[in-house]
Every structure is written in structure tokens, then in C-alpha cells.
Amino acid sequence: MIRVVLPHHLRTLARVGDEVQVDVDGAATQRAVLDALEAGYPALRGTIRDHVTHKRRPMVRFFACEEDVSHDGPDTPLPEAVAKGTEPFFIIGAIAGG
Hints:
By secondary structure, the protein is of the alpha+beta class. The protein has a single domain (2-93), classed as Ubiquitin-like (UB roll), CATH 3.10.20. Helices cover 23% and strands 20% of the residues.
């Protein structure tokens, strides 16, 4: 069971609380977590990743164990603490402006 913390606007869209839990088949990777998240919460499809390319949207960041893993490959294993559910996988909406 992997714990996922979503930004407020995605919580509202998915109609969930602060944190959701997803099961992944095989290794815990960004791709596996996002696939499970979108399967369990279809309203999130296309909000975190592009519908066609499945690439991370530009203003979305991923954090695991207080490290920015946004630029890691989608099939790079997540830290063991995230895979075991002791630490959450954070999806953060980045902010831009001047």
C-alpha cells in the first residue's frame, strides 16, 4: 500500500481527503503509482500527466522522502520507505510568477 498526498485542487476533483492509498503491481515507481492512482480515481486522468504521452505536466512536482523526484525516470524505483508505506509520495502543484 502506497500513501499518496495530493494538492488541494486534486483532492477536490477526486473527492478525497488529504491522503489516498493505492496498491501497485510489481515495483513501486512513479509510473506504477500514477497508473494505480488514475485507475482508482478516474477524475484525475490527464491532470497529473498528459493523456497521450503520459509525461508529467509542467507545473506538477513529485516528492519522496523529502527529495524532489520529478525529473527521475518514470520507471525509477521509489525509495523503500515510500514503497512500504511508511513515507508518503507527494504530488505538489508548483507555483510560478514574479
